[in-house]
Design brief:
This protein is an alpha/beta fold and 792 residues long. 55% of the residues lie in helices and 14% in strands. The protein is built from 25 helices and 18 strands. The chain has a five-stranded parallel sheet, sandwiched between helices. Helix 2 links the parallel strand 1 and strand 2. Helix 14 runs antiparallel to helix 16, helix 20 crosses helix 22 and helix 21 runs antiparallel to helix 22.
């Protein structure tokens, strides 16, 4: 035979040897259902994904693997698939079928019972961590006996439980009643067994009136809609409920669980596929590991709890997963820009400051009124005794009227009062503008503090979850003998520390909510639903592509700093306030100086009429009308020296105000310069801190895997977890630290338009370009690229 022919024969033999072997799997179900604890389709997909390259996998038709919700029917389906020569492996995914198959003495074919409740209580075969039964294995979450019962007892503070169990499961598991009696004695509780027969309403009606709480079994025959109906009827009875079916049942309205069964579908399906693979590769099912640790976590439906008037202790739900979380206060959603604008309209301190402006305006009006003419009208009736009567001049009885008019021609003190009040009004306007800027800064800072507190709380909650998983990991290692109890105790200690830190973080978040609500002056019992902003959304100027060109070298950076500082001086309401105070002081000085040589001049006029005379001395032909017109001038002499001393004082006050103005300008320049450098420093820290956090989290994953395999100690894992926590906190803090630095920069510059007006950047860049040109710096390269022409 030639070499070519021999090679072809060998390749043909190899191809036949590599041909995938046909495998047929029967997936047994208790009966037709709309709800599956372990999804048949998910199990099938996992098997195909794992075995598809090695074996040709097919599945027995569902009509041959689905029973009819009777023990006879379930066992008939099991027996038929055992007898079917075309079936290689059986997998039971029903609670009852798994229990039924586990009670058999022999297993003609490899069998996997995938759904168990409590393998020890159900008397499943077990030798160490294996079944020890030829061709049989199962998947179980082996827990400490009674752990769920004692949890629920302590959680609700009750001890008389109705236990809802389907008759089919009770029939398959006759020892269940005995187990309840033993558990009642061991855990100081009382159980009342209630069979799940008929509609959800009929089941709830069968619960005795003295039952204090309800333990709800798997309810495999109920659809999710029926579970929701059952939950609503239990709510009507004000009965707290615990479900063994996991999170799905809690989502449907039952109150609480610690079971992760419904979350473990993928994990359980993968274990089924791996077990089938190992069986096909030669391992007897009796040698396969049966224990599969599921994470235990409190899952609580808060809406259900509130509906029955129940609230758990803080400590019981600090790291729980909350379903239908309901707030005890109203929340309104605000962006940071909306929160600042709302504060500027509603902040109480700002409203008080606005009244100061209104009062100052009224003072101006009052001072102006002294410059206007004044007019008065008076009337009088007089009666005198007979001895005082003078005929024709002073009769016994007379009635008179008089009209008085005056107009200030010139009085420097009156004009000074008007001008001083006008300046004081401008001063109040400046102070109000300063208060506006302060309020904007307070609102933005309070908003960012709330976001920072929320991020801190979320990170610490996630860290507590990591600690909880590490505790589970340590317990798994203890079970297989690769770790000691000291690791368990160390993780429990760490868990207590993390819970305490989470409590403190939660309190900080609540305090931040209250502070923001105060600044915004929200109505009672309303808090802000703060939304995480994108940094670029807040930085219309700093995120613009043109910005880097203005700070790209030392010359540009120096000019940019000078521009920003000049902007700060121009916008500063504090400096404008000093200008007004100087104007007041100068006018007071001037009026005191003029008081030595300028008199006050008034025009006065008077008209009178005698209306009536009667009694002794009255005459009829007396002149009835009188009038007078005159100009009055007055000049006071400073004999006491008061005016001279006042002039000296005002000159000193002027120098003091000028120095205070200069010091304030200096402080503004310093604050602006420091804010610029802080922004320049904190912005790149965002990316660096995020990179650090990612590296720390990746390190934690690697160290945790190594700890699970016994390659590193608990100290290494604790260090990695603490490093990851610190890095994540720093990453979250870096972004908020930068944003707060930017807020401080806007306050120092006296301009919050970059935050509140997204279109303001164009105007700002135009002013910056003009400034650079005045400094002789070429700006042709500062124009935006074609893609950014819409900015112009």
């Amino acid at each position: 035979m030639s070499i070519t022919k021999f090679t072809c024969v060998c390749l043909l033999m190899v191809s036949f040897g590599l041909q995938a072997k046909d495998i047929r799997v029967a997936i047994i179900k208790d009966g037709p259902t709309q709800k599956e604890f372990l999804s048949e389709s998910v199990v099938q997909q996992e098997i195909v994904d794992l075995l598809g390259s090695e074996f040709s996998v097919s599945f027995v038709d569902s009509n041959k693997t689905t029973a009819n919700w009777t023990l006879a029917g379930i066992n008939r389906v099991i027996d038929e698939n055992y007898r079917d020569p075309n079936v290689d492996i059986l997998v039971t995914i029903g609670v009852v079928s798994s229990n039924e198959v586990a009670t058999r003495k022999r297993f003609p074919k490899p069998t996997i019972a995938a759904v168990t409740i409590d393998p020890v209580a159900q008397s499943f075969p077990i030798e160490g961590n294996r079944s020890g039964k030829n061709n049989f294995t199962y998947i179980a979450d082996v827990k400490e006996p009674g752990i769920e019962v004692t949890f629920f007892r302590d959680f609700v503070g009750q001890s008389k439980f109705a236990v809802l169990i389907e008759p089919l499961l009770a029939e398959s598991w006759p020892e269940f009643s005995v187990l309840l009696e033993t558990a009642a004695k061991n855990y100081n509780v009382e159980f009342i067994q209630v069979p799940v027969k008929g509609s959800p309403g009929q089941v709830v009606d069968a619960i005795p009136a003295d039952a204090e709480a309800v333990l709800v079994g798997p309810l495999a025959q109920y659809s999710r809609s029926q579970v929701r109906t059952l939950a609503n009827r239990l709510i009507d009875r004000k009965l707290p409920s615990y479900t063994f079916a996991g999170e799905i049942a809690v989502e449907d309205g039952l109150m609480v669980t610690t079971s992760q069964m419904s979350q473990a579908q993928g994990q359980m399906s993968r274990r089924v596929a791996i077990n089938i693979q190992r069986i096909l590769l030669g391992t007897n099912a009796s040698e396969l590991t049966v224990n599969m640790q599921f994470n235990s976590r409190v899952i609580y439906n808060q809406a259900t709890g509130l509906a029955i008037g129940f609230a758990p202790r803080w400590d019981d739900v600090i790291d729980a997963k909350i379903i239908n979380e309901e707030e005890f206060v109203n929340r309104r959603a605000f962006t940071v820009q909306e929160a600042v604008k709302f504060s500027l309209q509603n902040n109480l301190n700002l409203q008080v400051a606005s009244f100061d402006v209104e009062l100052a305006k009224k003072d101006v009006d009052i001072a102006r009124s002294n410059l206007y003419p004044s007019m008065s009208l008076s009337a009088a009736y007089n009666q005198i005794n007979e001895e005082q009567v003078i005929p024709g001049a002073n009769p016994e009885k007379r009635s008179d009227a008089q009209l008085n008019f005056s107009q200030l021609i010139y009085a420097d003190s009156a004009w000074a009062n008007f001008e001083i009040n006008e300046a004081l009004k401008n001063n109040q306007l400046s102070l109000y503008q300063s208060q506006v800027l302060d309020t904007a800064q307070q609102a933005a800072t309070a908003y960012l503090n709330l976001l920072r507190a929320k991020a801190d709380e979320e990170i610490r909650r996630a860290n507590l979850e990591v600690t909880r998983k590490n505790l589970d990991l340590a317990e798994n290692r203890l079970r297989v003998g690769s770790s000691g109890k000291s690791d368990i105790l160390r993780w429990k200690s760490q868990q207590a520390i993390d819970r305490k830190n989470l409590f403190a973080s939660e309190a900080n978040r609540r305090n931040a909510e209250l502070e923001l609500a105060r600044v915004m002056n929200l109505e009672k019992d309303v808090l802000v639903d703060a939304r995480q902003p994108e940094v670029s959304d807040l930085l219309s100027i700093l995120s613009d592509e043109r910005f880097e060109k203005f700070v790209g070298n030392q010359i540009h950076w120096q000019a940019f700093q000078e521009f920003y500082k000049l902007e700060a001086l121009k916008n500063s309401p504090e400096l404008k306030s000093f200008e007004s105070l100087l104007e007041v002081n100068q006018r007071e000085l001037l009026t005191n100086q003029r008081g030595n040589y300028i008199p006050d001049v008034n025009f006065v006029a008077q008209a009178g009429r005698n209306i009536d005379q009667s009694g002794l001395g009255a005459v009829s032909d007396v002149e009835k009308n009188t009038w007078s017109v005159g100009v009055q001038a007055s000049l006071s002499f400073d004999l006491s020296g008061q005016r001279r001393n006042t002039i000296s004082r005002k000159q000193i006050e002027t120098k003091q105000i000028q120095l205070r103005q200069k010091a304030t300008a200096q402080q503004i320049l310093t604050n602006t310069g420091q804010a610029l450098f802080n922004v320049g420093s904190s912005y790149p820290s965002i990316e660096l801190s995020h990179a650090s956090a990612e590296a720390a989290m990746e390190s934690l994953t690697l160290v945790r895997s190594a700890y699970a395999n016994g390659k590193v100690s608990i100290s290494d894992l604790l260090d990695a977890q603490n490093n990851a926590l610190s890095a994540r906190l720093l990453a979250a803090d870096a972004e908020y630290a930068f944003l707060q630095d930017y807020i401080r920069l806007m306050r120092a510059a006296g301009d919050f338009k970059p935050l509140l007006d997204g279109q303001y950047s164009n105007e700002w860049f135009d002013r910056l370009i003009q400034f650079f040109r005045t400094r002789g710096i070429a700006t042709s390269s500062f124009q935006p690229t074609q893609s950014n022409n819409n900015i112009q």
